[in-house]
Amino acid sequence: MYKKIFSRVVIFIFLCIIYIYILVIEAIPEKITIFEGEDISLKTFFGITLNAEENVLTVSANTGQKTIHTIGNETVSVSLFDKLFIKNVDVSVLPRTTVIPVGNIAGVKLYTNGVLVVGMSEIEGEDRKTYKPYENSGIEEGDTIVKVNDTMIYSTDDLIEKINLSDGENVNIQYIHEEETKECSIRPVKTDEDEYKLGLWVRDSAAGVGTVTFYEPSTQRFGALGHGITDIDTGDLLNIASGEFVTAQILNIKKGEDGNPGKIQGTVEEQDTIGKINKNTEFGIYGKIEDLSSLNIDMTKEMEVAMRDEIQTGKATILCSLDNQTVKEYEIEITKIYKENNYNNKSMEIKITDKELIEKTGGIIQGMSGSPIIQNGKFVGAVTHVFVDSATEGYAVFGDLMLKQSKEVN
Asked: Is residue 72 over pLDDT 90?
């Protein structure tokens, strides 16, 4: 009996170990981007090793940290006990760069690929009966309609026009659901206003205000917000076709309180174009500056991007604009650092300590997202979120994560 129990325990432990190896291996990405001199931070397990061509990858005898010393693209193989090949990891090594932290409030206008479905409702037909033409089509809130009868859809006006041209006949709709392209057929319903409708509420653009984080003089690119823009109705990251960064006019500042976040209220109407946005990511929005003068950047403030080992808990500062076109520096404290976090925009925890800023805003408020963080003369990261239950505290994203996203933008 004891032998059976012992053998079962051994088998259970063995299966647990295998399961751990599977989880660790699946978590190793197929592609990573690092800066020159930055260590490769991959979570491994006993026996899982990284290998590359001779003189490409070095391992510190004291810390075990792995570093690639050549700029460009390298392939690092992952193996088990240096015997069993598991997978390859493509590593892009970027040259170190300098940026200018900005801190200006600006307006954001995004235009989606196709039209985003944000709601559904019954339609009253010309016969006074109610219909749900979308029912059983497979389309859900958060999906994006990209084609009607093989014709591309770029706006809500395009969709309305194509549906009205259907004359009540079935229309073939191509849509994207969770990154998978699907098709369905829907018969529009004619209303007593002599219009044809699908019963879908859609949106083709989004607008708001946020903070420009950095400008990179060598590429004329910018990064902003530190987090992506999501649809207010679906919560999904907007898949954009294009976008504009424009000047913004601050109208009012609503102070934040514990349990009730504040916000910067502004307008983006009739403002000047700063540049084009071409990517909306979890780590911010990115594009190219066209009118540098509109940002009033101090070109003498160029500085290096801090590597994670250089970031320390303790005092730092942020740049933000609470008066139109006036950027000021305010004191904060970095309270926690998650050095191995490459997966979301919550890299650090911060706390506002500047009395003037707290008096103006109550702490971190909507619109301050993207405010650059500076420590020891280097660009460290950007403010991203406020803690709902503590208006003076929140999260920030690493600067190196934002720069890597910027480099991946075409």
From this structure: no
Residue 148 to residue 170: CA distance in whole angstroms: 10
CA-based end-to-end distance of the chain? 66
Which CA distances in Å does 228 have to 75, 284, 286, 380?
Answer: 30, 5, 10, 19
80 and 130 within one domain: no
Determine which one of 137, 321, 347, 369 is catalytic: 369
Neighbouring CB atoms inside 10 A of 121's CB total 12
Over the Cα atoms of the chain, what is R_g?
Answer: 26
Tokens standing for residue 177: 């659901």
64 has pLDDT over 50: no
Name the DSSP letter for residue 295. G
Domain assignment of residue 316, yes or no: yes
Q: Are residues 262 and 364 in the same domain?
A: yes
352: confidence class by pLDDT, cuts 50, 70, 90? very high
Give the residue from 226, 322, 208 showing the smallest Cα distance to 269.
Answer: 208
pLDDT at 71: 64
How many folded domains does the chain comprise? 3
Type of residue at 198: L
> How far is it, in rounded angstroms, from Cα 159 to Cα 85?
51
Q: Write out the H or E segment, with its range, that includes residue 14.
A: helix 2-27
Catalytic residue among 137, 143, 204, 227: 227
Instruction: Average the pLDDT over each of 10-14, 161-165, 203-207, 250-254 and give the range with the smallest value.
Output: 203-207
Instruction: Quickly state the pLDDT bin for 61 (edges 50, 70, 90).
Output: very low
User: What angle is formed at CA 110 by the lines to CA 104 and CA 111, rounded to 5 degrees?
Assistant: 165
134 versus 204: the higher-pLDDT residue is 134
Listing DSSP states for 242-278 in one string gives EEEEEE-EEEEEE--BTTB--EEEEE-TT--EEEEEE
Say if residue 104 is in the same domain as residue 144: no
- Asked whether the beta carbons of 242 and 203 are under 8 A apart, the reply is no
Q: Which residues contact 360 (CB under 8 A, 6 or more apart)?
A: 253, 255, 322
Instruction: For residues 349 and 391, state if they share a domain.
Output: yes
354 assigned to active site: yes
Q: How far apart are CA 341 and CA 361, in angstroms?
A: 29
Known active-site residue 227: yes
Q: Identify the residue whose tokens are 């408020």.
A: 365
Indicate which residue of 354, 371, 385, 400 is catalytic: 354
Domain of 161? 122-198
